[in-house]
Amino acid sequence: MSVKRKVPMRQCIGCREMKSKKELLRILRTPEGQFVIDATGKKNGRGAYLCRNAECFRAAAKSKGLERSFQCGVSGEVYGELLKEFESLDKE
User: Fold this and answer.
1) Domains of the chain (ranges, CATH numbers)
2) What does the alpha-carbon distance between residue 17 and residue 10 come to, in Å, rounded to a whole number?
3) In the chain, how long is the greatest CA-to-CA distance?
């Protein structure tokens, strides 16, 4: 008999669509309060998920999706740094 495994689903904070965890990119807030992109999806800390395109990131910034997910304020410079990292990943 074959066993069907449940595919973990997460919601993108930009477009609000449910997708499989492997399709999304995780943004992580470390215990020190820094925000980084977690490409592996396994680092410690609170995470939020985004589609792998810059449009969803911009939509999340506009709708304050990161503030909602992390329940804290996120400065504009953090959004700028994350956008640079995001665009560099988008080009690869």
Assistant:
1) 9-91 (3.30.1230.10)
2) 8
3) 53
Q: Which residues, listed in sequence order, are joined to residue 37 by a DSSP beta bridge?
A: 27
Distance from C-alpha of 71 to C-alpha of 59, rounded to nearest angstrom:
18
DSSP 12: B
Residue bearing the bigger pLDDT, 20 or 40: 20
Predicted TM-score of the model (pTM): 0.82
Q: Count Cα neighbours of 4 within 13 Å in the Cβ-side half-sphere.
A: 2
pLDDT of residue 10 exceeding 90: yes
Question: CB of 11 within 8 A of CB of 48?
Answer: no
Contact partners, residue 21, CB within 8 Å, separation at least 6: 7, 8, 9, 10, 41, 49
